[in-house]
Amino acid sequence: MRLVAWIVAGITLIAGYLWWTSPIRPVARHFDSPPPLQGVLSVNSALQRAVVEGREEIAGGEDIAMDAQGNLYTGSADGKIWQRTTSGQWRVFAQGNPLVR
Questions:
Q1: Whole-number Å distance between alpha carbons of 16 and 39
Q2: Order of strands across the sheet that contains 72-75
Q3: Is 73 helix (H, G, I), strand (E, B) or coil?
Q4: Is the pLDDT of residue 36 over 70?
């Protein structure tokens, strides 16, 4: 038991030393004014033209990802990973653990 206490104390001291002597010193950066809304920051209405896909097939769709072939992937609340192929068909790509039991 004493050996465990010495090991824990040693690890704590080493971790404390490494944290205390870290060369990283974060500094807040303050801007005089916000950047202009130009280029990629310009105001647009691109999302207003978006089409909702898979609402009937997918319960609780989450984020999306796209592969090199143009297939879309999303997760659902029941743990499934869905793939929307380039032909527009939805299929279960993988089965994971559900978020809600």
A1: 46
A2: 64-66, 72-75, 80-84, 90-95
A3: strand
A4: yes
pLDDT reading at 60 higher than 90: no
- Give the pTM: 0.50
Query: In the prediction, which pLDDT does 100 show?
Result: 61
Q: What is the DSSP string of 5-60?
A: HHHHHHHHHHHHHHHHT-S--------SSPPPS-GGGS---GGGG-----TTT-SS
Considering just the CA atoms, what is the radius of gyration of the chain in Å?
A: 25
d(CA 74, CA 51): 15
The number of C-alpha atoms within 13 Å of 65 and in the hemisphere containing its C-beta is 8
Report how far apart, in Å, the C-alpha atoms of 28 and of each of 19, 22, 25, 31, 55 are.
Answer: 20, 18, 10, 10, 43
Residue 99 has pLDDT above 70, yes or no: no
Q: Is the pLDDT of residue 31 over 90?
A: no
